[in-house]
Write a structure and sequence with these properties.
With 218 residues, this protein is an alpha+beta fold. Helix content is 45%, strand content 15%. The protein has a 5-stranded mixed barrel with strand order 1-2-3-5-4. Helix 1 runs antiparallel to helix 4 and helix 4 packs across helix 5 (108-130).
Length: 218
């Protein structure tokens, strides 16, 4: 316990404590009929994940990073927990190695970036593994090749061409699927809560259009 509370370890121990707090809060909210995962999905758009910016290259880089981390394939809460665990454990392991080799801990600010770079690939792997443990979000019932033609609802962010947003739909087995979508046509945008029809897969995301009825109404 003393090792965990040393100055050089507080950043990494704090990540693990935050993870435990999230797990506890999720358990409490489930008991009262709510879900922290859904709450996080509803709050994320207000954080301007897909907000307009003059730095287009920065936005594109963020989108690619989120896609690489499997953001959109699993709920955001799972990726957050995976990041906190891998960041905390990796940092503590490196500090243990430092203490064994150098006889002292390194400053946490010195290890923060290397630990982050080591944690991100682990989040990608754990995101794939943990999605099979998430109740109701098992994604093996149907093939991804069959997603085209299905109607989904935008759950996180605002979708624009080159800047996908997360969408969710349920298959015939009642399984929830999370995909990243962007409009099929240039200049089109999709907002949170809006229904879209998946048209074709393009890389890690799907191109989508508005449902036929809504297009006709407009």
């Amino acid at each position: 316990m003393e090792f965990l509370l040393q100055d050089g370890n507080q950043l990494f121990t704090g990540a693990l404590v935050l993870m435990l707090m999230i797990a506890l809060l999720e358990g409490v909210m489930l008991l009262i009929g709510a879900g922290l995962s859904d709450l996080l999905d509803n709050l994320l758009p207000d954080m301007d994940i897909n907000a307009d910016t003059s730095a287009a290259s920065t936005t594109g880089g963020l989108t690619k990073l989120l896609g690489w981390l499997r953001f959109g394939e699993v709920p955001a809460l799972i990726l957050l927990v995976a990041f906190l665990v891998t960041f905390g454990v990796t940092g503590l392991l490196l500090q243990m190695l430092s203490e064994a080799l150098l006889g002292s801990l390194l400053p946490s600010w010195m290890l923060a970036l290397p630990v982050l770079l080591l944690a991100l690939p682990q989040v990608r792997v754990f995101g794939r593994v943990l999605r099979f443990l998430a109740p109701g979000d098992e994604t093996q019932s149907v093939s991804r090749d069959s997603f085209a033609g299905r109607t989904a609802v935008i759950t996180i962010g605002r979708a624009e061409v080159g800047s996908p947003a997360e969408a969710r739909f349920s298959d015939e087995f009642g399984t929830n699927h999370y995909v990243m979508v962007e409009p099929y046509e240039e200049g089109e945008t999709f907002s949170q809560g809006q229904q879209v029809v998946l048209v074709e897969e393009q890389g890690a995301s799907f191109r989508a259009i508005r449902p036929a009825g809504k297009i006709a109404a407009e």
